[in-house]
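FORM 7B: Structural annotation worksheet

SECTION A. Query
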Amino acid sequence: MNNLKDNILFTQLNRTIDYFNKYKQIRQELKKNRAPYDKKIKIAVLSSFTIKGLKEVLFVKCAELGILSEFYIADYNQYSQEILNIKSKLYEFNPDLIILFVDIQDLMGKYYFEFYQLSEHQRNKLINEKLTLMKKLIYKLTENSSAKIILNNFKIPSFSPFGILENKQKAGFIENIQKLNFDITKEFKNNSQVFIFDYDCFCGKFGKDNVVDYKLYYLGDIKLNLDYLPQLCDCYLSYIKPLISLTRKCIVLDLDNTLWGGIIGEDGIEGIHLGPTPEGRPFLEFQKYLLSLFNRGVILAINSNNNLNDALAVFKKHPYMVLKEEHFATMKINWNDKISNMKNIAQEINIGLDSIVFFDDDKFNREIIKDALPEVLVIDLPSDTSLYLKTLMQINDFNILQITDEDKRKGKIYADQRRRETLKESIVDITKYLKTLEMIVTIKKADFFNIPRISQLTMKTNQFNMTTRRYSEEKIKEFSVDKNYLVVSVKVEDKFGDNGISGVVIIKKKKAEWNIDTFLLSCRIIGRKVDEILLDYIIDQAKKAKIKAIVGEFIPTKKNLSNRGFYKNNHFVLAKKEKNREIWKYDTNLEYSAPDFIKVVKK
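SECTION B. Predicted structure
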């Protein structure tokens, strides 16, 4: 699959026809080369009109990311039948993602053009019926499939037979379709399985008259101009990336001509551009948006060739410096090469290079990072600084399917980690250092409040993850009410702050033994003895249930090999070794000793 991905990356895809050709080429190569690939996804598309080309373009878009996608495209305008028939090919396909694309004209039928032939009462009744129908279909999907569902909302018409008096009409045509969009969004706002894609906004972005090719519409009921399929598929990737754990966590930023205009070492604080001036405002608003990303959980770091004192003076003294030192998990401000700095940033924060997005105005610096560290997403900043903010806003690599409390505080959590590392450097003995942290570990069984975070951790944790099994919220909910499973989360606090829920264990219970299906810790608490506390909890619970043995499984990946010895180091015995996994057993008659300097709270 890597060869296919490389092949795509070196191909210029400008037009939709280019994607069609590339789709055919990739399919042919796949027949010859059954090479392993890391990511797979099954996507079902249900539409009320002809959706030709969506499969081909989205397939190539996924392949660009190293994802092999498989599609089920329902027959023309058969979305209702597919959804309502539990034995349909849709459910047989068992998709990971369902895209439901119903056009408002198809939904309204003849009343799309004859809306005002109905009375006010009839108009309201019609819209309520259509709302009820859509809700019924979506809930039917959630009952019979665990797939995430993307529902395109309705494109608001840009015409009315009443012209400028349209908004004066009671139960008006446009007003009612707007209400339909609003009510559907409100209905599924708290549903973790259903996502409303703002297709109306998408159409407005490119022009509602432009997104329809009327010749193709009349010839084949094609309601989306093929030229806009790549842009639409980019929007769908915003959902696909977090669904298969391809999101990024951290923005690494240069300073001069990136966070402010000018060079601090030459221009001084008074001479750089930052503030409410034509030259300074692009940088001011760029920083404001970065702060909003920080506040929703994106980690910030700095990689800059500069004099440290000159740069820090801007953070401390400039009146319009929005971002402060405390907003950054690490700051590499020195004269080292940027490749080394980037590696050190990843190591210090304890994240993979593939979690990083890099902003630098200097093309040379961008190119050396691209060449040396291809896992890093390097953003090609435009030469026009007024486009910085737009460029940042268009990145869809930070999307997640649900924002938890931990996400909102992640930036602060990593900033607090800097203080821990400073303390660690001053204390030679690791046990003494851990004691000074005054840790409190809270182990809590899965419930309504922590299930979203538990699912999120299974979806994105790679390093300390013994099996790397990915579970949706719906699956975690199933486990949590199944008496044959034990699901717990781990919250870690210390004197520097709250790390939030940063560990998960899923146990499959059997009569004579318990199987550890999932054992994972977030990278930010690795090495703090929380794993031993968690094992002690499992062993204690097993003993209370009179279980003779605990079975641990290790499935190696590229990212978790450093923890291969986890079970061996904790008195498990190797029971079976296969090519792609190891089975370890622990005899519960053995005594297990966990650190006594960590306070444990069980809920």
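SECTION C. Observations
The longest helix spans residues 120-144. The chain has 25 helices and 19 strands.

SECTION D. Sign-off
Analyst initials: ____
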